[in-house]
Design goal:
This protein is of the alpha+beta class. The chain is built from five helices and 14 strands.
Length: 195
């Protein structure tokens, strides 16, 4: 999302879910606080559409599903978020019979903005690492051709790589996808030319 959420009064998990399912706008639930999510820029939306298209094309015929930002993820009883994109391979585990809260994403992608970048890199990533299913975390700049890639290693440590420039690519090993930055940033106009 394009702006860091602003808190409204603390709710229980049940109160949050009832409130959220009746709301016309999205709210994250962080440590018991309910945070309204702001709208996204044109670049943010184009990048998400391009990422979903690129992954869907490569995952056809596989058991993997790509979910956009309307699907919520439950991290624990006090933390629910809306990643920009999630991928699940195999059976999706859902929190209840309303089918709107995912429990087992393998890949999470966030498109960065100036107002949320510190949160996405810091607290949000710490929360996501609590998910036993998570194998890869991707942070996509919307200001230049740049993607940061975190991957869980067999020893439990997270490795970091990045890709920069329009001709670069990045491998999402857990889902056998390659993201070409020229495709990720198709039709996206940057404020300054990054080459």
């Amino acid at each position: 999302m394009s702006a860091l959420p602003q808190p409204i009064p603390t709710m229980t998990e049940a109160e949050y879910l009832e409130f959220e399912r009746a709301s016309e706008i999205k709210h994250e639930y962080l440590h018991g606080e309910v945070l309204a999510m702001a709208g996204a820029s044109e670049s943010h939306n184009l990048i998400i559409a391009n990422l979903i298209t690129a992954m869907k094309n490569q995952l056809r015929g596989h058991s993997c599903k790509v979910y956009p930002s309307d699907m919520r993820v439950k991290i624990d009883a006090r933390t629910y978020t809306y990643p920009d994109i999630m991928v699940v391979c195999g059976d999706a585990k859902l929190a209840d019979n309303v089918f709107d809260t995912l429990l087992n994403p393998m890949v999470i992608i966030e498109v960065l903005s100036s107002s949320t970048e510190a949160y996405d890199r810091g607290e949000k990533f710490r929360n996501y690492r609590k998910l036993a299913s998570l194998k890869e975390y991707i942070l996509v700049s919307q200001d230049s051709h740049h993607i940061d890639h975190y991957m869980l290693q067999d020893n439990g440590m997270w490795s970091f790589t990045d890709a920069e420039g329009p001709d670069a690519t990045i491998e999402l090993s857990s889902i056998s996808c390659t993201l070409a930055l020229t495709d990720v940033y198709e039709q996206v106009t940057f404020a300054e030319n990054d080459g």
